[in-house]
Amino acid sequence: MSDLPIIEAVIDYAKEKNALFCTPGHKGGEGFSNPYTKEFLRRTFEFDITEVEGLDNLHNPEGIIKISNELLSKLYGSYKSFFLINGSTLGNLIMIFSCFNEGDKILIERNCHKSVYNAVIMRKLKPIFIKNILSETLNAPLSIDMEHFLYNLKNQKDIKGIVVTYPNYYGLCCNLKSIIGECKKSGVKVLVDSAHGAHFGINENLPESAVKLGADMVVTSAHKTLPSLTQTAFLHVSETVNLEKVKFYFNAFTSTSPSYIFLCSLDYARFYLEKYGNNDYNNLIRISNHYRDKINLINHVHIIGKKDIIKNEFEKNIYDIDTTRYIINLEKGYSGHLLLRYLRKNGIQAEMSDESNVVLILSPFNRENDFEKLYILLKNCDFTLLASHSFNIVNCEIPELKIIPSDALNLDKKNMNFYEAEGAICGGNIVPYPPGVPLLMMGEEINKRHIEIIKHYMDNGVSIIGINNKQISVIDNRL
Q1: pLDDT tens, position by position, 30-39
Q2: What does DSSP say about strands 348-350 and 19-21: parallel, antiparallel, or unpaired?
Q3: Inter-residue contact 235 to 91 (CB < 8 Å)
């Protein structure tokens, strides 16, 4: 066994020189290879300092951090903006605690990240889940079900807010403008987890920014698509939100020893987007469109593009798509999980796979030879090796909520084999990762379909948070 297992594993990984179609957006440091960041990279460890004289305090910015926050706010068009050094997870916690009080009833898009679910439990909220439209073509969630959203907005009493994802993991965008417009009529706060949309709005060929569309609060992960270090994000606040509460929860949830290395990378990500973003994204979109067209001539695969959203089910169910993301959709009978393994074995690192798709996250720091490598691998792929019995994972309704999640947290639980858990109440959150969207939330009833899906994920090597040695935590309601 190695004396330095993490360090040695990372060194070995870096030696492989894979084409990186995954987060973070700087693509193995390519995003920092310019004159503005050479000194930063050369002296990174010297920059690991705290609030020494001549710098500033993240918890009470009066100097350089205040100036940088103001530049960030100006770029995105927010009332106030903040640097986050613990990712969009921190932003989701701050948003939910700032806007809602214990016992509030809120609407939540079912496709939200697990950090939203955790914040609901911690804040002791009453969630009403909104369905996602499910795509038979993609065998994956498309977008929020607008009909279900409007029904609940009208018929649920005392709704205080809604949390939506924009875009989702597949780069698909709901009609956020319409959602915000409907909510404003009722005084309902709109919080947007836009973790994958930090680059939105910088180029006319990209979807519009959730900030510009009028959301009350928005969190974006700088590290997912921009040249910033993993664990960094931006939080944007409108004039409609109590800023003093935001500042309180920002300080409460943020480390009192923030990394200046992270802060430097956030400052640079904002600078890069402002100075180079429009031109660089024009170039990225040109290259990605070119290779999308080439790849779409290959049998058995199709990368979803803007042309697809005006056809069939896409026309009604999604508003826009981020074309700097590849959804490689396979014909029925072929496995996305097996394609992901093939790509990884041959030097392509993708972000995630599901039953029918592989998702690749692009950034301006992907070189054209990355795309050429992807094209050649797909062109030369023996698809007979990817054949798999089709498994329809989209056919799963929102589980029945038996116990409010915050109440379920405090109840006694026991572990049992997940095969035997049908009819039991889930005692923890069951989260396939990626994408980090819970299949089950604590307090929800486990049914036969959930067991089938869990087994399928485990058989295909998908990591599932909440399952350990086939054991699942339950509140057994059958005794």
Answers
A1: 999 888 888 8
A2: parallel
A3: yes
Q: Which residues contact 429 (CB under 8 A, 6 or more apart)?
A: 114, 117, 118, 438, 440, 441, 442, 465, 466
Tokens 């049914």 label which residue?
447
Percent of the chain's residues with pLDDT above 90: 78
Q: Token pair for residue 315?
A: 């026309």
**Cβ(398)–Cβ(145) under 8 Å?**
no
DSSP state of 134: E
Which helix or strand (DSSP H or E) is residue 72 part of?
helix 64-76
**More confident site: 311 or 171:** 171
**Looking up tokens 């103001």, which residue turns up?**
70
For the beta carbon of residue 479, count every other beta carbon within 10 angstroms.
5
CA 176 to chain centre: 16
| Helix/strand/coil for 276 | helix
Q: Per 3-state DSSP, what percentage of the chain is helix, strand, and coil (rounded to 5)?
A: 40, 20, 40
146-155 vs 176-186: helix axis angle to the nearest 10? 10
DSSP H or E stretch at residue 474: strand 471-475
Q: Is there a cis peptide before residue 364, judged by omega within 30 degrees of 0?
A: no
What distance in Å separates the CA atoms of residue 25 and residue 33, rounded to the nearest whole number?
13
Q: Quote the mean pLDDT of the chain.
A: 92
Helix (H) or strand (E) holding 116: helix 114-123
Tokens of 205: 């060929």
Backbone angles phi, psi at 251, to 5 degrees: -70, -35
List the one residue out of 166, 165, 189 whose CA is nearest residue 239.
Answer: 189
253: Cα separation from own chain's centroid: 20
> pLDDT band at 479, cuts 50/70/90?
very low
Q: Report the alpha-carbon angle 473-476-477, nearest 5.
A: 145
First to last CA, the chain: 46
pLDDT of residue 311: 61
Query: 315: exposed, middle or buried (C-beta count within 10 Å: 0-12, 13-18, 19+)?
Result: exposed
Please tell me the distance from the alpha carbon of residue 138 to that of residue 36, in angstroms, as a whole number. Answer: 41
Answer yes or no: are the C-beta atoms of 141 and 135 closer than 8 Å: yes
How many angstroms separate the CA atoms of 381 and 335, rounded?
13
377-387 burial string, b = 16+ CB within 10 Å, else e?
bbeebebeebe
Strand ranges in 110-222 using DSSP code E only, listed in sequence order: 126-130, 132-135, 140-144, 159-165, 172-173, 189-193, 217-220
Phi and psi angles of residue 402, each rounded to the nearest 5 degrees, phi first? -90, -35
H/E stretch holding 109: strand 105-109
